[in-house]
């Protein structure tokens, strides 16, 4: 509380504590936006369903995922025991990962006007279900799926893979 030059009492709220709180909030929002934006990169996918602990690794940083979060080319997705995640790529490809899985979205390029693009994914370990979207329907040869022991050209539209851990 303070007294103004006219002699009236004035109540001041906030002060340094409020400024610090606002500054901290702005910093947190900026860091979340930076994670989401990925240096202007185009979004490849969006998380649609999730159960348990699921994380994404991007540029050496690990972060928990949540429904609605975006994935980008180069992202690695990891699921814990009793966990799973489902996400949809921009061409409507559906990918589901089971428990104890490690997945890498190596390449995703998609032109929404022509439905052309490329997809390259790597399953390091765990289980995956893959249902082709527009890229697979228009140019199945432009999809590539890799495991630690094989690289597969995808010609079908729906498959399940299990990769044993090391």
Explain what you see.
The protein has 166 residues and is of the alpha+beta class. The protein has two domains: 1-37, no CATH class; 42-163, Jelly Rolls. Helix content is 16%, strand content 47%. The chain contains two helices and 14 strands, in the order ββαβββββββββαβββ. The protein has helices at residues 16-37, 134-138, and strands at 2-3, 9-10, 43-51, 54-58, 61-64, 70-72, 76-79, 84-89, 94-97, 102-111, 116-131, 143-146, 151-153, 158-163. The strands form two sheets. Strands 3, 4, 5, 6, 7, 8, 9, 10, 11, 12, 13 and 14 form a twelve-stranded mixed β-sheet that branches. A two-stranded antiparallel ribbon has the order 1-2. A hairpin with a 5-residue loop joins strand 1 and strand 2 (9-10). The termini are far apart. The relative contact order is 0.12. Residues 10-38 have low confidence and may be disordered.
Largest sheet: 12 strands, mixed
Indicate the proportion of strand residues.
over 45%
- Mean pLDDT comes to 81
Name of the top-level CATH class of the largest domain = Mainly Beta
Order of helices and strands: EEHEEEEEEEEEHEEE
| Oligomeric form | single chain
Can you tell me the residue ranges where pLDDT is under 50 for at least 5 consecutive residues?
10-38
Number of strands: 14
What CATH architecture of the largest domain do you see? Sandwich
Please count the helical segments: 2
What proportion of the residues is helical, as a percent range? 10-25%
Given the helix and strand composition, which structural class is it? Answer: alpha+beta
Signal peptide: 1-36
Domain FecR protein: 75-162
Pfam families: FecR (PF04773)
Protein name: FecR protein domain-containing protein
């Amino acid at each position: 509380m303070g007294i103004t030059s006219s002699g009236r009492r004035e109540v001041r709220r906030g002060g340094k504590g409020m400024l610090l709180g606002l500054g901290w909030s702005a910093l947190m929002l900026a860091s979340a936006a930076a994670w989401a934006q990925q240096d202007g990169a185009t979004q490849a996918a969006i998380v649609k369903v999730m159960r348990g602990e699921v994380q994404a690794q991007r540029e050496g940083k690990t972060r928990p995922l949540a429904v609605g979060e975006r994935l980008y080319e180069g992202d690695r997705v990891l699921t814990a025991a009793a966990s799973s995640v489902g996400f949809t790529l921009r061409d409507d490809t559906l990918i589901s990962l089971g428990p104890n899985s490690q997945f890498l979205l190596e390449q995703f390029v998609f032109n929404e006007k022509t439905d052309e693009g490329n997809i390259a994914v790597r399953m390091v370990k765990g289980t995956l279900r893959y249902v082709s979207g527009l890229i697979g329907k228009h140019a199945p040869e432009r999809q590539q799926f890799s495991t630690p022991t094989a690289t597969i050209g995808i010609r079908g539209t729906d498959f399940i893979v299990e990769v044993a851990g090391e």
